[in-house]
Amino acid sequence: xxxxxxxxxxxxxxxxxxxxxxxxxxxxxxxxxxxxxxxxxxxxxxxxxxxxxxxxxxxxxxxxxxxxxxxxxxxxxxxxxxxxxxxxxxxxxxxxxxxxxxxxxxxxxxxxxxxxxxxxxxxxxxxxxxxxxxxxxxxxxxxxxxxxxxxxxxxxxxxxx
Length: 161
What we know:
By secondary structure, this protein is of the alpha+beta class. The chain has one domain. The protein is built from 4 helices and 5 strands, in the order ααβββαββα. The radius of gyration is 18 Å and the shape is globular. The N and C termini lie far apart (48 Å).
């Protein structure tokens, strides 16, 4: 009988690493928000996040370009991921009034394209930063919440009746 405990342990420790790394990234974002507050451009938050991660000796890459491939062909277009931290966590930064489902979809797409398991969507235009953070997992994309108008839920129930 061959059980795969080693694989389970590897996934478990990887999950713990991603969790700890997510906490570190969120801590860095909170510090950036504490220092400069809401209302600035996304590029400013990105520069400050990079500096804060450097100060914490956390490895990262910024403005990662991914090719747009359609039906197996490179179109010449590029996706740009704001940050990939420790080659584990995709981080998308936003300086918008509110997050939309398209922002969540963008993060999930980046997770799919990179093969990464964990992503953070951080919106800096809030009074308290923890209200602007969404964590997504490619293993459980339902972690992200998409709002559905109440009348649409009623329509779905009616059509299934």
